[in-house]
Design goal:
Layout: H1 11-31, E1 50-56, E2 62-69, H2 76-88, H3 90-93, E3 105-111, E4 114-118, H4 121-124, E5 130-136, E6 139-143, H5 147-151, H6 155-166, E7 179-184, E8 187-190, E9 197-199
Antiparallel strand pairs: 1-2, 1-3, 3-8, 4-7, 5-6, 5-7, 8-9
Length: 200
């Protein structure tokens, strides 16, 4: 079952998406202002979801923020800005991004091209390609697609961690009243802070 508006992004679109997220984070952290998307690329008018992830490169590195939505009706360009700001705020990982951190942040953007409600997530998902969302008992959570590859998780661990994030019991994803959505789309990220962009 597809819920996102069909959108297909070029490498140039993805590069601009990461640049826009970077501009939005910088503007929010330094000036406390919301960056306007400005003259948007055609793909950015699509009404689809996006997730922005901020990682620190200091020391052993750590997640500093991650925010977004897969079931939004907002235009992609505006959603990139809003998600970047939310990721940089204290609401994401408990502490707001400080100006001194900006040069040590790696930014990645996961753009939703399609969503699929699945009855068999273990067999339907591809690790590293699919983000997932779980919803049940009034609780919900989503997970970034690169996480299982980065942490060497199996499909089962990926699903269980999504359930735990949602406040659901271990194995709840197998219950009939818990829904699992596979989120498909490309991830574009900086190879190094403020550096060149790669598509994953």
């Amino acid at each position: 079952m597809s819920e996102a508006q069909a959108v297909s992004l070029t490498y140039e679109d993805g590069t601009r998406a990461v640049e826009l997220a970077r501009e939005a984070v910088n503007s929010y952290v330094i000036n406390g202002q919301r960056e306007q998307p400005g003259s948007m690329r055609e793909a950015f008018y699509a009404r689809t979801g996006v997730f922005v992830r901020l990682e620190s490169t200091r020391g052993r590195g750590s997640l500093r923020g991650c925010a977004g939505a897969y079931d939004t009706s907002e235009q992609l360009g505006h959603q990139i800005v809003d998600s970047a700001i939310a990721a940089a705020s204290g609401d994401s990982c408990g502490s707001e991004i400080e100006p001194a951190e900006l040069s040590n942040l790696n930014i990645s953007v996961f753009i939703v091209e399609n969503t699929v409600l699945t009855d068999d997530p273990v067999n339907d998902m591809r690790l590293g390609r699919h983000g997932i969302a779980v919803e049940g008992n009034g609780q919900h959570a989503w997970m970034y697609p690169t996480l299982p590859v980065e942490h060497n998780w199996s499909e089962f661990e990926y699903l269980d961690r999504a359930c735990r994030k949602a406040g659901l019991p271990h194995g709840a994803w197998e219950d009939d009243d818990v829904f699992v959505t596979l989120i498909e789309g490309p991830v574009f990220r900086e190879r190094e802070p403020e550096g060149s962009i790669e598509r994953i």
